[in-house]
Design goal:
By secondary structure, the chain is α/β, with parallel strands linked by helices. The protein is built from six helices and eight strands; from the N terminus they run βααββββαβαβαβα.
Length: 203
């Protein structure tokens, strides 16, 4: 099977104890201690979506994952990243802004650029007709991973969520299982497990 993996918002403001949005989430240790070593060993690379959540962002007062600051940094090692990384500024990946990702420049207001996101997918991830599935990991399954699954599904991708590789904002595992196995999430993505993914990858 031809599959690609996309990491969403696996940044220190969410994943590290010092982060502005840190909660204990089991998927953080799983990605760091199990998934990343496996990917390195088998020379598998990951596409990445991260966020620049500096203000201004109308209707959202949160000011985190600030470009150039510690909390903005990704937990995905450089040597397994597919480049370029996509940077968004709202929950859905189609939202971008002027000077996104540039710490020394003032960020503009968020706006939608679905064409640019589609071009990034085509170039970095692959076209939907050329892939059997896209596997999502990262944070969070009830917000940005969810929105990314919607956008990919609407573009014709078969989307799977690695259950061990995602966490909810609250960190509650029962909440995560409920989200991954019921509508509306299941309208756009299918839950898969680490065991199943290893079989798919033929390892």
């Amino acid at each position: 099977m031809v599959v690609k993996m996309i990491s969403v918002d696996f940044q220190k403001d969410f994943s590290d104890k010092r982060g502005k949005h840190y909660k204990f989430r089991r998927n953080v240790d799983f990605i760091k201690k199990t998934l990343i070593p496996f990917l390195k060993e088998n020379q598998i690379k990951v596409a990445e979506i991260i966020s620049d959540y500096r203000l201004p962002r109308p209707a959202d007062p949160d000011d985190s994952c600030r470009a150039g600051e510690w909390g903005y940094e990704s937990e995905i090692p450089e040597d397994i990243k597919l480049k370029p990384v996509w940077i968004k500024c709202m929950n859905s990946p189609i939202w971008v802004r002027e000077n996104i990702g540039y710490p020394d420049k003032k960020p503009g207001l968020p706006y939608q650029n679905p064409q640019a996101f589609t071009s990034w997918l085509d170039d970095v991830v692959g076209k939907p007709e050329d892939l059997d599935a896209v596997i999502l990991i990262g944070l969070t399954s009830d917000c940005c991973v969810f929105c990314t699954a919607q956008e990919l599904s609407w573009r014709g991708y078969k989307v799977k969520i690695l259950a061990e590789g995602v966490g909810t904002y609250s960190g509650d595992e029962k909440e995560k299982e409920m989200i991954l196995t019921n509508p509306p999430f299941t309208n756009w993505a299918e839950r898969t497990s680490w065991e199943e993914l290893q079989e798919v990858l033929g390892k």
